[in-house]
């Protein structure tokens, strides 16, 4: 291929990978929830977390108006416990309240009341607690997962364009997916939620299972590496992988059963 063609293909692959990664992240159930509230004829944009650790369990309302007061109402999720209420405290130009720290994979549901306006009462926000993951584990996991998606995207473009070296990118995608999803991935999950694997056959964690499905579909290509039919099987596997990884991150993820103390798959 011409160098200009290769460059164009890589640019398209990077764009597809970034689009997939961003979509997966912003649609996930742990992405902060945004809301706008009007107070005294002024709008305030607020962000409410849906993921927390022992060091990031604050709910912060960036409202400098000293006439504003607010309450945080919460309970364990999923339970029928009575809701508890705490008052936000003024710290300079923000109102701060603290949620009680939960065990790994433990969840709370919460909503807030700002003056007389109540946010999320009918559909409380769910926040999941996790353990701190060392950067030396998390960063390689993210890098290898991103690179595997990049190789899959580039391989898909090669296959669609009927170019050579499709088999090379099948193999590279498999290698990087195994390292990112099946070596570093379980270690990340162990630090975050106390279990190494909660997908098949032990559970129904969607993040674990979608990674497993993607790997199986890629491995099915190995017998065809030297055959002309590889182009078709590779297109199917690469497209399936991209679609699978568009599924929101952490959807149907690990969840602590507050009654049994066992980490299960979210309902």
The total tally of domains equals 2
Radius of gyration: 22 Å
Structural category = alpha+beta
Number of strands: 13
Low-pLDDT runs of 5+ residues are none
Query: Main beta sheet: strand number and arrangement?
Result: 6 strands, mixed
* Count of individual helical segments: 5
Strand percentage, roughly?
A: 15-25%
Q: Average pLDDT across residues?
A: 91
Overall body shape: elongated
Helicity level: 40-55%
Q: What is the terminal separation in angstroms? A: 49 Å
Order of helices and strands: HEEEEEEEEEEEHHHHEE
Textual characterization of the structure:
α1 packs across α2 (135-160), α2 packs antiparallel against α3 (166-193) and α4 runs antiparallel to α5 (230-244). This protein has two domains: 3-27 and 133-265; 33-129, Immunoglobulins (Immunoglobulin-like), CATH 2.60.40.10. The protein has five helices and 13 strands. The model has no long low-confidence stretch (mean pLDDT 91). It has helices at 3-26, 135-160, 166-193, 206-219, 230-244; strands at 33-39, 42-48, 51-52, 58-61, 70-77, 84-87, 89-91, 94-98, 107-114, 117-119, 125-129, 254-256, 263-265. The strands form four sheets. Strands 3, 5, 6, 9, 10 and 11 form a six-stranded mixed β-sheet that branches.
In short:
The protein contains five helices and 13 strands. The chain has 267 residues and is of the alpha+beta class.
């Amino acid at each position: 291929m011409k160098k200009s063609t290769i460059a164009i293909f890589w640019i398209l692959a990077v764009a597809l990978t970034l689009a997939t990664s961003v979509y997966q992240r912003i649609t996930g159930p742990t992405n902060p929830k945004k809301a706008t509230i009007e107070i005294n004829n002024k709008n305030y944009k607020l962000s409410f977390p849906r993921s927390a650790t022992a060091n990031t369990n604050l709910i912060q309302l960036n409202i400098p108006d000293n006439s504003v007061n607010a309450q945080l109402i919460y309970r364990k999720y999923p339970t029928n416990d009575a809701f508890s209420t705490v008052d936000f405290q003024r710290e300079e130009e923000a109102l701060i309240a603290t949620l009680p720290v939960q065990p790994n994979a433990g969840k709370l549901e919460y909503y807030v009341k700002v003056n007389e306006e109540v946010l999320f009462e009918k559909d409380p926000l769910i926040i999941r607690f996790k353990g701190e993951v060392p950067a030396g584990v998390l960063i390689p996991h993210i890098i290898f997962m991103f690179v595997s998606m990049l190789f899959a995207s580039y391989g898909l473009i090669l296959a669609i364009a009927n170019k050579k070296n499709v088999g090379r990118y099948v193999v590279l995608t498999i290698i990087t997916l195994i390292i990112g999803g099946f070596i570093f991935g379980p270690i990340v999950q162990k630090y975050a939620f106390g279990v190494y694997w909660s997908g098949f056959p032990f559970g129904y964690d969607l993040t674990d299972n979608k990674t497993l499905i993607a790997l199986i579909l890629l491995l099915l290509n190995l017998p065809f590496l030297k055959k002309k039919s590889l182009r078709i099987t590779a297109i199917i596997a690469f497209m399936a992988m991209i679609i699978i990884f568009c599924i929101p991150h952490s959807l149907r993820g690990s969840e602590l059963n507050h009654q049994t103390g066992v980490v299960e798959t979210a309902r």
